[in-house]
């Protein structure tokens, strides 16, 4: 709960730390589009946290450049639980807009400030499923009013990804709003390949009887039925598949512009774990 003592040591487990330039470009594109209104409406100098940036801060540096397009006074803070990674990142800091510090799921900020946004990518993948909600709760508890947590996973080059948009619910706990799936469309043989990059809260739920498994099955079916559009390119085939999904009753969010980018956002209730 708010006001509880902050842990004296970072909360979390050290990740492998591997990353690549532009690995999170697709995720950041969605972040800027979706959370842009939150950034514009926020009080001066809103804070965006990149949690668990890894052994090299390149994706944090890229995030800072991308959100600065929306709001020049955004403060981006990269957090890592390993002091050596923080030291290695220090030369890349550009005060006052970009900095790095020691921290984990407790999301410590100087002066008791609260972040407007937290991006946590490829962090929870190594955890057990039952550890996800407590981690979400810690991060959401630290958010500023109307803030958001973006938690997800992508492959090494960022061409496949999936993430959850999590807000603070009426009870103060985490309230997921949507699941977004992302592909580089020209690489797609079957869209269900993205299942290997589902967030930890869903990756073990891709089994018969679970909603996310039904989504993967329906995605592949819609893609197969859209094969006649392939002559016009993967983008047109994907648009036809999305239209098919909507006909099947899936609560697809977003607009045609987002779908053309290879993004599919689904309302959370349609994919949430059954228990």
From TrEMBL:
Highest taxon in the source lineage: Bacteria
One GO-annotated biological process of the protein: methylation
InterPro entries registered for this protein in UniProt: SAM-dependent_MTases_sf (IPR029063)
Entries under SUPFAM superfamilies matching the protein: S-adenosyl-L-methionine-dependent methyltransferases
Disordered: annotated span: 1-20
Entry's Gene Ontology molecular function annotations: methyltransferase activity
Keywords from the UniProt entry: Methyltransferase, Transferase
Protein name (Swiss-Prot/TrEMBL): Class I SAM-dependent methyltransferase
């Amino acid at each position: 709960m708010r006001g509880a003592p902050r842990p004296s040591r970072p909360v979390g487990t050290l990740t492998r730390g591997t990353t690549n330039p532009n690995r999170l470009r697709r995720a950041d594109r969605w972040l800027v589009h979706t959370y842009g209104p939150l950034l514009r409406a926020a009080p001066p100098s809103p804070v965006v946290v990149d949690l668990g940036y890894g052994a090299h801060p390149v994706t944090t540096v890229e995030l800072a450049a991308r959100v600065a397009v929306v709001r020049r006074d955004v403060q981006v803070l990269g957090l890592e639980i390993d002091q050596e990674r923080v030291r290695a990142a220090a030369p890349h800091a550009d005060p006052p807009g970009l900095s790095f510090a020691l921290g984990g799921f407790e999301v410590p900020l100087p002066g008791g400030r609260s972040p407007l946004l937290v991006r946590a990518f490829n962090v929870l993948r190594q955890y057990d499923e039952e550890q996800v909600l407590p981690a979400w709760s810690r991060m959401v508890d630290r958010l500023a009013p109307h803030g958001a947590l973006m938690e997800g996973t992508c492959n090494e080059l960022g061409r496949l990804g999936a993430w959850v948009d999590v807000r603070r619910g009426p009870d103060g706990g985490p309230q997921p709003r949507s699941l977004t799936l992302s592909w580089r469309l020209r690489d797609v043989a079957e869209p269900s390949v993205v299942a290997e990059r589902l967030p930890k809260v869903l990756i073990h739920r891709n089994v018969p009887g679970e909603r996310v498994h039904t989504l993967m099955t329906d995605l592949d079916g819609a893609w197969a039925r859209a094969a006649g559009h392939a002559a016009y390119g993967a983008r047109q085939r994907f648009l036809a598949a999305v239209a098919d999904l909507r006909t099947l009753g899936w609560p697809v969010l977003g607009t045609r512009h987002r779908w053309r980018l290879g993004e599919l956002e689904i309302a959370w209730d349609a994919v949430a774990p059954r228990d």
